């Protein structure tokens, strides 16, 4: 073996064996807590093995229904907040990024800075800052949970920004816009027929991450004393930890399902192109 | 019925569109990219804008297209000032340097796009797009996506897409730059053929002078935001109006000379001056390699290198004062590196510029 081949290959692609080891270790680190959660949720009480759905029977018990009311309401609120947050992302962030790319290129860095800023600020700090703001907002709207979308929307900004920015970087949007306009399309026609279809993957990924963040958000809702999925889950944890664990797992599966659906939508596009 | 390709009779009947840039000025943050460009393109004419990077040729084309607003002057199409007309209302076809096909659309959908925006009905749209694709020889690839095509094919589709709407003017923004040499020549000739058969007024931006000289009816050489000279390729090459054009178009040897009585003397040999001779004094003379011959006797030189260029050979020789001169000669005249030779100027008039 030559001296050169013995040298350490900095930044080289790992071998297949190394890749497999990394994959297995990372997979175990990710899956073991889920396994433990599932085992706790579905294991008969007082036993070290076995599987039972008995814990879930409590959900249909009318006498214990009051225990779960807050969870059901929290899920409903979180889904509404998720839909509104995604809508806010599509209505405000996406057009801002498109405009910055096509018309106001000097503000691209500003938008990036603003969007990535929330990731560097602890959510607790943000939540404390939101309290006086929301006190004023709720004077107008009443203490309705959907208004949380604006606050949670801020913490989802980095997660929504990155996939769209990556998508924009991957296409020559300026030339596509100019080509479209030279062919007779107006601004809105260009955005609708040319820009948005090419940003579909970025928008889907941004939407998925936004939904994930909203479903996992606890701090802001807790500080603002609103009932969301996570706050409902935290309360239920004390009354019925088995059902709470089951719902935590279900939430993960839900996000995973969205991931698969979004991935399939993107793959469908790719396979149609390749055919 | 033919929609895109016209018959010769129709082409002859087609008057084309006249384009005029009058004193067009464009500034970017205080820098004048266009300093008052005047350019008149006759109906059906193919004009190339040629010049070094940053000379303003692309800015001029983008101003005509409407992609850039102008800060002064006017842009006339058939005598109507369109300077304030948005790009999508100018009825201009454009082919870009980077492949600008819409990646989410098939070739057919790409070509139909301009017609869709003009609300042409689906049946006509389909027929015209099919015809345009057949015109560029890609009718069989109509269901493909852009990423499934080669660079040359993508630019052919872009050309079909630009022409299918029957625009008044066709603008080509370095459409061949990203292609390999062989495809570039083939597509260049194809563009010229379609332009002539359709009789469409065309403005072509090129940084490769061979491309510009090969296809254009007239070439406008730009420098520092203005047109230095516009003329046929032969005029530019044989009678450059300025030292810049002489230096930029083709290859020139920049040799020291002295003007006396309207004649420049270069290495002891008197040569006539192109255009008006400057006042007597030291000048730089621009002498073409093909205007210098390797002779039995004359200016002594030593061969530095020699290159085979297919139909001719170019040899670089060093004079006694260390000046390196390019000489063009027959392929059969083989010269060896280090060989002593003699040079003779053939006596053609040369462009000169006073020495700074």
The CATH architecture of the largest domain in chain B can be named as: 3-Layer(aba) Sandwich
What is the correct CATH architecture of the largest domain in chain A? Orthogonal Bundle
Quick one: how many beta strands of chain A? 0
Largest sheet of chain B: 6 strands, mixed
CA-CA gap between termini of chain A = 45 Å
Order of helices and strands of chain A: HHHHHHHHHHHH
Helix content of chain A: over 70%
Query: What is the level 1 CATH name of the largest domain in chain B?
Result: Alpha Beta
> H/E series of chain B, N to C?
HEEEHEEEHHHEHEHEEHHEEEEEEEEEE
Instruction: Tell me the fraction of residues in β-strands of chain A, as a range.
Output: under 5%
- Structural class determined from secondary elements of chain B: alpha+beta
CATH superfamily assignment of the largest domain in chain B? P-loop containing nucleotide triphosphate hydrolases
Q: Determine the strand fraction of chain B and express it as a percent band.
A: 25-35%
Average pLDDT taken over every residue of chain B: 91
Give the end-to-end Cα distance of chain B, rounded to a whole number of Å: 63 Å
According to CATH, the homologous superfamily of the largest domain in chain A is MetI-like
Q: How many helices of chain B in DSSP terms?
A: 9
CATH fold label of the largest domain in chain B: Rossmann fold
Index terms:
heterodimer; A: 275 residues; mainly alpha; MetI-like fold; 12 helices; globular; disordered N terminus; B: 356 residues; alpha+beta; Rossmann fold; OB fold (Dihydrolipoamide Acetyltransferase, E2P); six-stranded mixed sheet
Q: How does this model look, in words?
A:
The complex is a heterodimer of chains A (275) and B (356). Chain A is mostly helical and 275 residues long. Chain A has 2 domains: 39 residues, no CATH class; 210 residues, MetI-like (MetI-like fold). Chain A contains 12 helices and no strands. The longest helix of chain A has 38 residues. Chain A is globular. The N terminus of chain A is likely disordered. Chain B has 356 residues and is an alpha+beta fold. Chain B contains 9 helices and 20 strands. In chain B, the strands form 4 sheets. Chain B has a 6-stranded mixed β-sheet with strand order 6-7-8-3-9-10, with helices on both faces. A 5-stranded antiparallel β-sheet of chain B has the order 13-12-11-14-20. Chain B has a 5-stranded antiparallel β-sheet with strand order 15-19-16-17-18, with no helix packed on it. In chain B, a hairpin with a 2-residue loop joins strand 12 and strand 13. In chain B, helix 3 packs across helix 4 and helix 3 runs parallel beside helix 5. The longest helix of chain B is centred in the middle third of the chain and has 18 residues. The relative contact order of chain B is 0.12. At the A-B interface, helix 7, helix 8 and helix 12 of A face strand 6, helix 3 and helix 5 of B.
């Amino acid at each position: 073996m030559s001296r050169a081949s013995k040298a350490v290959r900095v930044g080289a692609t790992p071998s297949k064996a190394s890749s497999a080891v990394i994959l297995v270790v990372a997979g175990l680190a990710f899956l073991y807590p889920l396994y433990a959660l599932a085992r706790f949720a579905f294991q008969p009480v007082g036993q070290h093995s076995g599987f039972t759905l008995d814990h879930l029977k409590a959900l249909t018990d009318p006498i214990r229904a009051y225990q779960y009311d807050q969870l059901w309401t929290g899920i409903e609120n979180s889904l509404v907040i998720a839909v509104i947050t995604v809508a806010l992302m599509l209505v405000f962030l996406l057009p801002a990024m498109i405009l910055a790319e096509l018309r106001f290129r000097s503000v691209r860095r500003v938008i990036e800075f603003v969007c990535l800023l929330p990731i560097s600020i602890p959510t607790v700090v943000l939540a404390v800052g939101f309290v006086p703001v929301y006190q004023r907002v709720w004077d107008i709207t009443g203490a309705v949970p959907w208004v949380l979308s604006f606050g949670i929307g801020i913490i989802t900004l980095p997660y929504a920004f990155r996939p769209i920015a990556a998508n924009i970087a991957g296409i020559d949007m300026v030339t596509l816009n100019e080509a479209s306009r030279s062919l007779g399309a107006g601004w809105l026609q260009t955005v609708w027929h040319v820009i948005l279809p090419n940003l579909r993957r970025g928008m889907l990924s941004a939407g998925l991450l936004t939904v994930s963040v909203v479903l996992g958000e606890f701090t802001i809702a807790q500080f603002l004393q609103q009932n969301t999925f996570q706050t409902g889950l935290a309360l239920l944890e004390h009354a019925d930890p088995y059902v709470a664990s089951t719902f935590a797992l279900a939430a993960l599966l839900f996000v995973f399902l969205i991931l698969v659906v979004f991935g399939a939508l993107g793959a469908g596009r790719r396979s149609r192109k390749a055919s | 019925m033919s929609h895109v390709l016209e018959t010769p009779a129709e082409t002859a009947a087609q008057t084309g569109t006249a384009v005029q840039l009058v004193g067009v000025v464009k500034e970017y943050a205080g820098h004048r990219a266009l300093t008052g460009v005047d350019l008149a393109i006759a109906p059906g004419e193919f004009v190339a804008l040629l010049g070094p990077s940053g000379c303003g040729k692309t800015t001029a084309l983008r101003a005509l297209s409407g992609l850039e607003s102008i800060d002064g002057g006017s842009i006339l199409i058939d005598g109507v000032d369109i300077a304030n007309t948005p790009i999508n209302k100018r009825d201009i076809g454009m082919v870009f340097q980077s492949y600008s096909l819409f990646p989410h659309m098939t070739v057919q959908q790409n070509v139909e796009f301009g017609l869709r925006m003009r609300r042409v009905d689906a049946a006509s749209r389909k027929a015209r797009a099919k015809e345009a694709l057949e015109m560029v020889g890609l009718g069989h690839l109509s269901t493909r996506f852009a990423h499934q095509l080669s660079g040359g094919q993508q630019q052919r589709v872009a050309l079909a897409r630009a022409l299918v709407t029957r625009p008044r003017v066709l603008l080509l923004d370095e459409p061949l730059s990203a292609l390999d040499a062989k495809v570039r020549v083939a597509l260049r000739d194809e563009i010229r053929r379609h332009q002539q058969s359709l009789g469409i007024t065309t403005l072509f931006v090129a940084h490769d002078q061979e491309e510009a000289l090969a296809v254009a009816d007239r070439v406008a050489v730009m420098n520092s935001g203005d047109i230095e000279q516009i003329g046929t390729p032969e005029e530019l090459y044989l009678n450059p109006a300025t030292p810049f054009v002489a230096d930029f178009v083709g290859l020139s040897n920049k040799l020291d000379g002295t003007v006396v009585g309207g004649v420049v003397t270069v290495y002891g040999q008197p040569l006539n001056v192109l255009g008006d001779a400057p006042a007597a004094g030291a000048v730089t003379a621009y002498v073409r390699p093909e205007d210098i011959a390797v002779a039995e006797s004359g200016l002594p030189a030593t061969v530095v290198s020699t290159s085979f260029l297919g139909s001719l050979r170019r040899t670089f020789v060093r004079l006694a004062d260390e000046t390196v001169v390019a000489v063009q000669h027959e392929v059969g005249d083989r010269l060896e590196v280090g060989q002593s030779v003699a040079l003779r100027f053939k006596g053609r008039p040369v462009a000169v510029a006073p020495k700074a």
